[in-house]
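I have been asked to look over a protein record a colleague put together. Alongside the sequence sits a line of tokens, each denoting a local backbone shape. Please read both lines and tell me whether the tokens look consistent with the sequence. Take the sequence as given and treat only the tokens as open to question. I have pasted the whole thing underneath without changing anything:
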Amino acid sequence: MDLGFETIGNATLIAYDGGPVLATDPWLKGPAYFGSWTRTHEIPDEQWDAVTRCPYLWISHGHPDHLSPETLQQLPGKTILLADHVGGRIARELTQQGYKVEVLKCGEWRQLSPRLKICAVADYGQDAVLMLDLGGRLIVDANDAPDKGIAGFLHATVQRYTESYLLYLTGYGDADMLNVFDEDGTRFTPPAAAKEPVGPVIAQLLEHFGITHFVPFSSMHKYQRTDSAWANEFATPLAAHASGFQSTVGDMLPAFVHADFARDEVFGLEPAETPNTLHAPEEFGDSWDEPLQDGDLQRLRDYFEPVQHLKTFLGFLQFEVAGDTHRIEIAREQPRGLTFAVPRHTLMSCAEWRIFDDILIGNYARCTLHGDWGGRTGTAALYPDFGPFLCKYADNGNARTASELRAYFKAYEARGFFRLGGTPAGDADARAIAPYLE
């Protein structure tokens, strides 16, 4: 293709300008989340070859369905483009591994080829949106970045283009911790169980921003471990994205699409579905019968205790490993706690590598809520205080103390794209971060 783009895999966009130039979030080889996730569809040879010929790769954030170490090992010699995340963890660690890394300053356009320039905006949730001007048409790769305050900047950018494309995660909401129980052992029904029509949400997005085309994106995964396959019941099939879609502003394109701008030609790619093969957790290093070893509990304390925000709401953390329960006191005066039943390999790897989000998203670990959570149940109890402050701000942003959190949020606000005190991410989000904006 001379000029245009294709989408493939989970969240991979291939941009062409006289040939392939840029591929985004290339999870094209191997599983993710300790083997729990695989892609719903195969990667055709033609698109795999195009990715190998791209001089540039973009990685939006650190989740393994976007930053895939196994895939990167197959793509040597690329320039990896990153958003300017506060803390700089991804840039630092990829550089240490020998990759060539370039960090894009927020809101500034970077020319990659004669007809392709890009602009990235990082958000305080350690995700990022990438905008591409490809031959005078705008492509917005929002992957699975929730609106953390950049909607105004995005809206203003879209208005400068007569033709625009939004690539964004939509669906029932299974790409999160669903495996949450009460103290009686009853699993909370996840919001994804409602299977609300997806199309009206997409239409609303197009109409709000004035975008002319939508491509379903960043939601093409399924569960393949024997202890997580239950969650496939809540995954979003491709056909569901169009359910209820009606828009006078824009149209919906296939999830796997070939858009040739030079020929004004658009059609769906038809990759084969991946087989529905289940794998035992032992294939990925996990045994539910492996107990904690000497020193493991102290290593867990060393991981959790520096995260000071936990003390503002959490009394204790417990880990059920191989049938034994291990407790870490956080703040005895707090009336609630969490128990995670999880294999030792996953637990200790996530603590060592500071990737606790992988436990939440893999959906084979089991979380039990203890005490009074103020009416919040299921996944909602873990947000906005536990998941974001541990997995986003601490693990990836290196902000664990109150002073580090204040500096963290101040750094994002100083960039001028939004005011965090007025974040549209929800009242709960705003309440949680408000003490660190003073």
